[in-house]
Every structure is written in structure tokens, then in C-alpha cells.
């Protein structure tokens, strides 16, 4: 497997319709007209992913006040996402891409470096999608800790 194709500002955001942590289905089309922060993370209930999800949770009110909707995406099954939501009081949708097709379409699944080794997996990434469904920002290989604060600064919220 080679490095995934990456998205750039102005590209159309790949459409998706995926099961959520609540058992519902969420589609990107459902969010049209709003600015969406879609963030890809490797695995629910791991230390880094928990830190990142809690940072988004703690910033959610101010992000929503600024017009942003937050959605987390991982290959975890909806049942695990529901446990994650319950355990850590996650207050935004978590979608399950167990087939990894959407993650791949966003360039957030493929070869990456992990502890000096090349592995295949989820590339921690964040996408800001404008109200018309176009990529505004595509950030790859982001850090779990401090990423939300940096994103807020980059978006002019802090």
C-alpha cells in the first residue's frame, strides 16, 4: 500500500453516510449549509484519542457558537463508539467507518510512521468542510494533544 491521496482546499469533500454511536445514520449531506470539522482518529478509548475527543467536547459550545459542527470518524464499530460517548460524555456525533472507505477517500487511512515503523492505519487528520461541501482545510498527521487549541487559533477563534 502506498501513501494515500490527500485532499486540498477547494476539493469537494467525499460524501458519506455512516452509522453513528447512537445507531442513527449521519450523512455529510445532512450537514450541508453548515461548516463541519470532521476529525479522523485511530481508535476510541485509547489515551490519545480520548484526549483529543475530550478537547473537542470541551470546545464544542464555542465552536458551535462560531458556526462549526464537529464529527469524529474512526473504524470502530458503533457499539464501541457508544461506550466511548458514555464513558467520556462525548457530546458530538461519532461515526463508524468500519470498512475504512471514507477514511481512505479523505486520505486519512494508509501507510504512516508509528514508532519508526511503517504501518497501515488511520492517519490522525482534521478536515474543515465549508457549507457548500468543499474542503476548506485538510490537516494530516496532527497531534492528539494540543490539536484543538491549534485549530481554534488557526480558525481565528482564540
Short description:
By secondary structure, the protein is α/β, with parallel strands linked by helices. Helices cover 27% and strands 28% of the residues.
List keywords for this structure.
158 residues, alpha/beta, five-stranded mixed β-sheet, two-stranded antiparallel sheet, 9 strands
Q: How does this structure look, described?
A:
It contains four helices and nine strands, in the order βββαβαβαββββα. Helix 1 packs parallel to helix 4. The longest helix is centred in the middle third of the chain and has 19 residues. The model has no long low-confidence stretch (mean pLDDT 94).
Blueprint (SSEs and pairs):
Layout: E1 17-19, E2 25-27, E3 35-40, H1 47-65, E4 68-74, H2 78-88, E5 94-96, H3 101-105, E6 109-114, E7 117-122, E8 125-129, E9 135-140, H4 147-154
Parallel strand pairs: 3-4, 4-5
Antiparallel strand pairs: 1-2, 3-8, 6-7, 8-9
Number of strands: 9
Percent in helix = 25-40%
Give a short account of the largest sheet.
Answer: 5 strands, mixed
**Overall body shape:** globular
Could you tell me the mean pLDDT? 94
Rg value: 14 Å
Helix-strand topology string: EEEHEHEHEEEEH
- Beta-strand residue percentage: 25-35%
- Unreliable sequence segments: none
Question: What strand line-up does the widest sheet have?
Answer: 5-4-3-8-9
Number of helices: 4
Distance between the termini: 39 Å
Quickly give the structural class.
alpha/beta
Amino acid at each position: 500500500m502506498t501513501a494515500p491521496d490527500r485532499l486540498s482546499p477547494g476539493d469537494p469533500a467525499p460524501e458519506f453516510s455512516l452509522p453513528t454511536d447512537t445507531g442513527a445514520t449521519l450523512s455529510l449531506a445532512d450537514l450541508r449549509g453548515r461548516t463541519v470539522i470532521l476529525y479522523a482518529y485511530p481508535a476510541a478509548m485509547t489515551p490519545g484519542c480520548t484526549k483529543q475527543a475530550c478537547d473537542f467536547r470541551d470546545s464544542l459550545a464555542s465552536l458551535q457558537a462560531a458556526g462549526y459542527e464537529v464529527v469524529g470518524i474512526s473504524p470502530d464499530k458503533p457499539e464501541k463508539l457508544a461506550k466511548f460517548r458514555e464513558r467520556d460524555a462525548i457530546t458530538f456525533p461519532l461515526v463508524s467507518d468500519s470498512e475504512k472507505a471514507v477514511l481512505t477517500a479523505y486520505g486519512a487511512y494508509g501507510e504512516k510512521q508509528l514508532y519508526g515503523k511503517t504501518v497501515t492505519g488511520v492517519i490522525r487528520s482534521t478536515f474543515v468542510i465549508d457549507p457548500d461541501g468543499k474542503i476548506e482545510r485538510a490537516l494530516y498527521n496532527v497531534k492528539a494533544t494540543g490539536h484543538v487549541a491549534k485549530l481554534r487559533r488557526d480558525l481565528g477563534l482564540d
